[in-house]
Amino acid sequence: MESQGGTRRHVVDLIRGLDAERFDVTLIYGTSRLDASFIEDLPELRRHARMIPCDALVRNISPRHELAALRQVRSAIREIRPDVVHCHSSKAGIIGRLAARLERVPRVFYTPHAYSFMAPEFSGKKRVVFTALERWFSRHATTLTFNVSAGEKRAALAAGLDRADKFRVIVNGVPDVPVPSREEARAALEFAELGISDGAPVVGVTARLVEQKDPMTFARIAAEVIRQRPDAHFVYMGDGPLESDVREYWRGCGEDVASHTHVIGYRADADIMVAAFDLYLLTSLYEGMPYSLIESLRAGVPAVATDVVGNNEVVRPGADGRTARAGQEARNGSLFPVGDVEAGVAAVAGMLDNPPSRDTVRETFLRRFLASQMVRDIARHYRGELLPSEAELRSEGAIKEVRR
């Protein structure tokens, strides 16, 4: 797997949650993009699983590295002789599934965490190539694909990757751990030192400053909302290559905006520090099933997010399907079109004026996004309890392909 972001979080929670009496787990992971959270998790993970680093598993396309990674994964499978191989993310999914097929592993599962062809930057020939690869591997080297959202599954079917019964939706979940109060989180983040008073409304996000998250739309929405509501503050908790662009934009908006906007960098405890916010704002161009939105609901913080796959299955707006009607309480947030600053401003302003209660927001988390449910569903597939019949799979040759 690629050990960064949502993929890392999903795999770590899965390893922690699997019953050690029933599963003997080995994790092969790429080392080229280890994030700080994964490095911190490594000592604990070694108590739950055998950990095998793979230096050759890199993000950029490199035939030399791909062949080296394939050899290493095949060698590990040949030694371990697993009953199940579960691959995560697009590139690791191709290498892992090919290795599993060549070594005749009986059950091969795949979680893409957003298909590569869903990304806006992949267009034309690249999109065609990635779609063709996903189609071949789904049909010839995969028992089932686990999609983290219904929208991701719809994208797979629209692209003609495989039959509908080869996909199962198992949404991401997080443990229901204690989170600090709003006041405790603000004190821990030293909001007072940033000039944020206890009563000031704070809109925030915990995300990397990268193209996928579209931080410039966050920045533009922030500037306009602050002009309308001078008491509001916006906090970006994260780091990344676009940080300087965001800071420069806010400085260019004048002191009134610059003094109410803050980039506070990466924090290992960002998943619970989200409790400091009054509203969560996620401006992603695309998603699979974003953990950060789920974490905001766990803390009782309502969310405004772009209306894309994944986001629109976590955020549940009011009765009109987009934003709460005047005087009506939204269920847990609001949605707006990708890149639409004007609509984003209206959604944020509306939610600040008429937010749902924290208890109402948390209820939407408890009902659907618990890690225990995610692990239980995946484990049942590992044990073969929820697999489609062999007759169904054999109709397309899938069983014959992986058991040949």
From TrEMBL:
Pfam families: Glyco_trans_1_4, Glyco_transf_4. Keywords: Glycosyltransferase, Transferase. It comes from the Bacteria. GO terms for molecular function: glycosyltransferase activity. Residues 5-174 form the Glycosyltransferase subfamily 4-like N-terminal domain. Signal peptide: none annotated. PANTHER family: GLYCOSYLTRANSFERASE (PTHR12526). This is Exopolysaccharide biosynthesis protein.
